[in-house]
Specification:
The chain has ten helices and no strands. With 187 residues, it is an all-alpha fold. Helix 9 packs antiparallel against helix 10. The protein has one domain.
């Protein structure tokens, strides 16, 4: 135990300030390190699907930046953000991803963007097709915002459901990825 009898009042205040500063810095460092650990140690896409869900992996997100940087990282934290985690967390993530992917080709607004603005026929069927549409030279800033907004609403509609933490991370990550695209000639 620290003996404070011989330390001046000013010294005690300075020591308390240093301790509080280190504690706050430590908390920020733990948060940052925890996030980095999740990125480095999170499971890859093949870890999300079992043999019974191979269709999800085949139809689901591919190697586009949204999948690599958003779904893979967010899926890696399912254990921390879901009550019980473990097998239940993996099963909920798989079911939610399967439902989310199945919502993409049914979405009329994304299909409209793909057909009328991008000039392709048919719906957006997976995240790779969504990413390709966002990169198309015919996309305007407004069109991209509409696409991201619609995608975020599909994330919220997927069942059994992404947790609030997962939705927030996915929304932020997808928005950042699309915003990282340079302007098109129609921007």
């Amino acid at each position: 135990m620290l003996k404070t009898k011989n330390i001046s009042q000013k010294g005690k205040v300075v020591a308390l300030f240093v301790v509080i500063t280190l504690a706050v810095a430590g908390l920020a460092g733990v948060n940052f390190l925890s996030e980095a650990f999740v990125v480095a140690q999170g499971p890859g896409p093949s870890d999300y699907t079992s043999k019974s869900n191979e269709k999800v992996q085949a139809q689901g997100p591919g190697n586009d930046p949204i999948t690599k940087n958003c779904f893979r990282i967010t899926g890696g934290i399912y254990d921390m953000s879901m009550m019980g985690g473990g097998t239940v967390g993996v099963q909920n993530w798989n079911k939610t991803m399967q439902n989310f992917v199945s919502l993409l080709p049914k979405d009329k607004l994304l299909t409209l963007l793909n057909e009328k603005i991008v000039g392709r026929s048919g719906p957006i069927t997976d995240m790779a097709a969504f990413w390709n549409a966002m990169q198309d030279d015919n996309m305007t800033r407004h069109s991209r915002l509409v696409g991201v907004s619609e995608l975020n609403s599909l994330l919220a509609a997927a069942k059994p459901g992404f947790t609030k933490i997962q939705q927030d991370l996915l929304n932020r990550c997808i928005t950042n990825e699309v915003n990282s695209l340079g302007p098109t000639s129609h921007f």
